[in-house]
Amino acid sequence: MAVEFQRSPNPTLGVEWEIGLVDPVTRDLVPKAVEIIDLVKDRHPEVHLEKEFLQNTVELVTGICDTVPQAIGELSHDLACIREAADELGVRVWGSGSHPFSDFREQPISAKMSYAEIINRTQYWGQQMLIWGVHVHVGISHEDRVWPIINALMTRFPHMLALTACSPGWDGLDTGYASNRTMLYQQLPTAGLPYQFGSWQEWLDYMHDQDISGVISHTGSMHFDIRPASKWGTIEVRVADATSNLRELSALVALVHCLVVHYDRMIDRGEELPILQPWHVAENKWRAARYGLEALVITSRDTDERWVAQELAELVDMLSPLAEELGCRAELHLISEILERGAGYQRQRRIFQRTGSWEEVIDATCDEMEELKPIEH
């Protein structure tokens, strides 16, 4: 199977943000995505929205952006258009990694053959996908750089996930996890951690095998947590829970942009990029999903460990000069704000522990979407 990588001469950005629609009375999910997308398309044809796996989900998709502020500005405009349509239809816009009590058996999937095929193939496990994420694309100049950078990014997997983790609730329970979405999504046979390919040719060989075996014809693509997006000439980072607000989303996008460019420039300088053993990467993913910002993560091939919050604080300092150059220093420094205030899972858990009500968690999360920033509870 030929997979031609459409090289990107500059480290451009693209962001995809999956958001849900909820009933303001029941706080349950409502399948109104098609109506909202049609309303927005008629009134604001410049806005790019996509139908997603579930009919309760709208995906915001930016164009090709040069800077984080440009991407966030576009998402802010698109979100305002969605909220206008949602208000007209009597629903609220909501962002989180998973819904804390909605019954997946009652949520219809979108009318798309590939989605129906996924359900037919995966059955019970695929039906549970009441989950939402953020995907960040960064342009890469040559395919030979793709897998060294992806392997290096995997050493920062827990940092990206802990920062955005906001899915502690599931089926009416506090799961004890910061990101239950992460655990649910990896149930799909084509999802989860990518293999640590050593070259672009190894990736081509792998994709060739998946094509012959029928995997790609069943699913359309491989749904790895980080993967090449050959059509766009990007690396696509799919680690994060969907944030409840633009402010925290901008911190994530800035971190991803800076990390990719940082590793790309290490290649320019002839420096060796970091890589961890696959078992360490898998353990770090679990620790971040379980403990979020309170995770102790493995940081070296010698199995050294450090607190992820401390690592994030030092990453901000290390990447600040590059962020200044890329025009996202203010957004990168919002990481410090998240470390001080707490991530989305912590805000949700505090409300649930205080009130015993997931409905109040939904209300607060919708409020954050409207205010475009986290709200203290």
UniProtKB/TrEMBL annotation:
It comes from the Bacteria. Its EC number is 6.3.2.2. Transmembrane segments: none annotated. GO terms for biological process: modified amino acid biosynthetic process. Keywords: ATP-binding, Ligase, Nucleotide-binding. It catalyses: L-cysteine + L-glutamate + ATP = gamma-L-glutamyl-L-cysteine + ADP + phosphate + H(+). It is an enzyme of class 6 (ligase). GO terms for molecular function: ATP binding; glutamate-cysteine ligase activity. Gene3D superfamilies: 3.30.590.20. SUPFAM superfamilies: Glutamine synthetase/guanido kinase (SSF55931). PANTHER family: GLUTAMATE--CYSTEINE LIGASE 2-RELATED. ATP-dependent carboxylate-amine ligase which exhibits weak glutamate--cysteine ligase activity. NCBIfam families: gshA_cyan_rel, PRK13517.1-2, PRK13517.1-4. Belongs to the glutamate--cysteine ligase type 2 family. YbdK subfamily. This is Putative glutamate--cysteine ligase 2. It comes from Corynebacterium halotolerans YIM 70093 = DSM 44683.
